[in-house]
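Appendix C reproduces, verbatim, an entry submitted by the partner laboratory led by Prof. M.T., so that reviewers can inspect both the input and the predicted structure.
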Amino acid sequence: MKKTTTRLADGRELIYYDLRDDAVRDERDRRPLDPVATASEIRHDRLLGDSVAIASHRQARTYHPPADECPLCPSRDGRLSEIPAPDYDVAVFENRFPSLAGDSGRCEVVCFTPDHDASFADLSEEQAALVLEAWTDRTAELSQLPGVEQVFCFENRGAEIGVTLGHPHGQIYAYPFITPRTERMLTSLAAHREATGGNLFDDTVADELADGRRIVLEGEHWVVFVPYAAHWPYEVHLYPKRRVPDLLALDEAARTEFPQIYLEVLRRFDRIFAGRDGGKEAGPDGGKGEGTSRGPRAAGAARTPYIAAWHQAPLRAGRREDFALHLELFTIRRTSGKLKFLAGSESGMNVFINDVPPEAAAERLREVASE
């Protein structure tokens, strides 16, 4: 991998990650950009004890542009974009419309491929491995910024999720605080250690492997399962079998196997609802449909919207080594043409109601495995 760091016309950082060591990245951003003006601030909710990012400048961000005006495509044929080069492998840059900025953190955009019509599931294992290297490198770099407490790499895919740019990309947030979700995990981790002397993450993975009903895919170094108390109709967690706190701590064997495991899981997600061309589809109660489709993506089927989220240990948490890096992947679709909305119970009381039994979801994800 070759890494090249440069600057965009408004001073934001741009980093290229190339598969070829002889790649040259000397293109200059020729756009007449004004300096970035952000109004991000963090406000503390005294009642709930959590933090809210206020970022009014994001109202002006780019919203569903036509493909020939995509700001994440390479700059070609006189069309200038956020990436000055006419081609790239993986590119990362500071978001021009960040939720977090300055003393309130940092936001970056990760472009997985120059192909506007592709998705992460379409990448080769070599390309996916390069994205993993970019995530790891950015985690290392952002962890060194003053005030950063946690680094979060994630991908939102699909207009149903709220994505405003169709180009395959993810984001990285560097938070100036430990997120509420992580705080809750740390509390549960400490309580489990006090009660049993064991590690909650290790015991959870061991229990899932022993039970077996919710296992979706298992490799030599990774395991994928639907959680016992899954919040979403189709939700899986990917854990390295050797517990590590963050992406930087993954060993070479786990890094090598990850692309194969992750790409297979993403492709299965795209087949869950492939019923329109003869594919089998699970009903609201987890029941089976007829037939099956096992191609990379069922012909004519819409891509499944999803969120993929890396959970990494906070940078300065006590007993940081007890935390387990894992990736959470879920879709907001509960059946073909129907979405799982966060309605009154979920949004008002944070109590999730799941329409698909986790065991049925795992069975469905095993059924659509690649041949």
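The chain has six helices and 15 strands. Additional entries are available on request from the coordinating office.
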